[in-house]
Write a structure and sequence with these properties.
The chain is of the alpha/beta class. The chain is built from 13 helices and 20 strands. Strand 3 (64-68) and strand 4 (77-82) form a beta hairpin. The two termini are 19 Å apart. It binds ligand BES, manganese (II) ion and zinc ion. The site of manganese (II) ion has 4 residues, from loops.
């Protein structure tokens, strides 16, 4: 999608669809209070005023009304979209509203849009919303696609400015990288093996000027990654460990961020096999890995002043004749041994070795993302990502960043008391606890492998996949 800034006043804008955002009539800025709404109302001879008065439109979030060939404007269509209560509005909300406008117009095959804003504050969010809302996971539909992709999206803000241009560019990069991740996550397991994922990472790295190294089974065996290889041995698909490296232009000082993502391209559960109901969804068990690859792509373009290394352990968890059995004991890269009581708790096994490896590569701080447990979905549903840490200062930074971007994260506990559950009579650790607090015991298990490195763990099992389409986003990978 081409993104542009349009500095003209609304009446001068030639576009297929001019979009304006108005608030709930029962809020401080409701109805015609905003500058753009006032202007458009005057230009159209009171259309907005009449629309509100009719009761057919009240400015509730994602409500829309469309006018063709609006008098007084050069635009072919005028779309007004509700943004809910003005006192609850934020950049995150504008992202959703812009997404909903994009999806509504896309479904009508309108491929060129201009969104008029009052202020520059949310411009980047509006761009993100449009790009995210335009995304449809319909690659394998040969018929009946949902409209056609939006080709051009402009933000209209009178006057324009270089700072604003930069904000739009940042929004474009982040949203495109998010869609890149969604593409990877949506691929079915027959088309997204560990090898295929490594191929995509390699291609992306070559395009973006990142270093990419892919460790194969022999190399991992040499290094001693027994936990990762144990999971992989039940599948005909060979495992890989993908390493992506970003180095800043100038010497960045001491901080080296390690991003680690769970890359299980299909999780059948292995010998501890899952029920068949819903198993098809376990193709998204590589969403954490895909998110790390997408984040590295954004980092390559945004060029922050720190060193970042992405580590993605990628395996398929299958119950083949060589599969690991419940009761098997594996030796990890760290030297610690694990009794595998349940082969379906495979994410923590591959992450154990990947986290150790990320430390070995020099990470001073670690963040991992993993569709790790069904228990986090029980605890937090599909709204919040569960976050765990061994370092409150690092978590505070992550929470502040999430808040600024309108991402929902909820801190979970990680007391030593939970460790009790991971005792094994025969090895250093068991890979599962009892049925209570499953998301916490999984995080507790990972904690054993990050040792003293400041670390934040994101359990994204509940949030990586949208069960139902939203007005602003398609069903599927989020
Ligand atoms: N990939 C699953 C977790 C998951 C569940 C992701 C639902 C997305 C949606 C993970 O590997 C798993 O199977 N976890 C088990 C752990 C259990 C065996 C201790 C679970 O949550 O049931
Ligand atoms: Mn599993
Ligand atoms: Zn899994």
């Amino acid at each position: 999608m081409e993104i542009k800034l349009n500095p003209l006043p609304p009446d001068q804008i030639e576009t297929e669809a001019l979009v304006i955002v108005t608030f709930d009539k029962d809020s401080p800025e409701g109805g015609l209070a905003s500058g753009v709404a006032k202007k458009i109302n005057a230009l159209t001879g009171g259309w907005l005023e009449d629309l509100y008065a009719s009761g057919e439109f009240s400015g509730k979030a994602f409500e829309t009304a469309m006018l063709h060939r609006p008098g007084g404007l050069k635009a072919k269509r005028l779309l007004v979209i509700g943004a809910g209560k003005s006192d609850a509005f934020s950049a995150a909300e504008l992202r959703r509203v812009a997404g909903a406008a994009a999806r509504s117009l896309r479904s009508k095959s309108v491929s060129e849009i201009t969104l008029a804003l009052d202020a520059g504050a949310g411009a980047a969010a509006a761009v993100e919303g449009a790009i995210l809302g335009d995304y449809e996971p319909d690659r394998y539909k040969t018929d009946k696609k949902n409209g056609k992709a939006i080709e051009r999206f402009a933000v209209a803000l009178e006057g324009g400015g270089a700072e604003l241009e930069q904000a739009l560019e940042r929004g474009r990069i982040i949203a495109e990288c998010q869609n890149f991740t969604r593409d990877l996550v949506g691929e079915p397991a027959n088309r997204m093996s560990p090898t295929a994922l490594a191929e995509r990472a390699r291609e992306m790295a070559a395009e973006q000027g990142l270093e990419c190294e892919v460790l194969d089974r022999d190399r991992m065996a040499q290094l001693g990654m027994g936990a990762l290889l144990g999971v992989a041995q039940g599948s005909a698909e060979p495992p890989v460990l993908i390493v992506l490296r970003y180095r800043p232009n100038e010497d960045a000082g001491a901080v080296h961020l390690g991003l680690v993502g769970k890359g299980v391209t299909f999780d059948s559960g292995g010998i501890s096999i899952k029920p068949s109901e819903g198993m098809e969804k376990m193709k998204y068990d590589m969403a954490g890995g895909a998110a790390v690859i997408g984040a590295m792509r954004a980092i390559a373009q945004l060029r922050p002043a720190i060193t970042v290394t992405g580590v993605i352990p990628a395996v398929e968890n299958m119950p083949g004749s060589r599969a690991q059995r419940p009761g098997d004991i594996v030796t990890t890269l760290s030297g610690k041994t694990i009794e595998v009581l349940n082969t379906d708790a495979e994410g923590r096994l591959i992450l154990a070795d990947a986290l150790s490896y990320a430390r070995r590569l020099g990470s001073t701080h670690l963040v991992d993302a993993a569709t790790l447990t069904g228990a986090i979905v029980v605890a937090l549903g599909h709204v919040n990502v569960g976050v765990f840490t061994n370092d409150q200062a690092l978590l505070d930074k992550v929470l502040a960043a999430a808040k600024a971007e309108g991402e929902k994260l909820w801190p979970m506990p990680l007391d030593e008391d939970y460790k009790e559950q991971l005792k094994s009579p025969f090895a250093d650790l068991a890979n599962v606890g009892n049925r209570w607090g499953g998301a916490v015991t999984a995080a507790m298990f990972l904690k054993e492998f990050v040792e003293t490195t400041p670390w934040v763990h994101l359990d994204i099992a509940g949030t990586a996949w949208l069960e139902e389409a939203k007005p602003f986003m398609a069903k599927g990978p989020s």
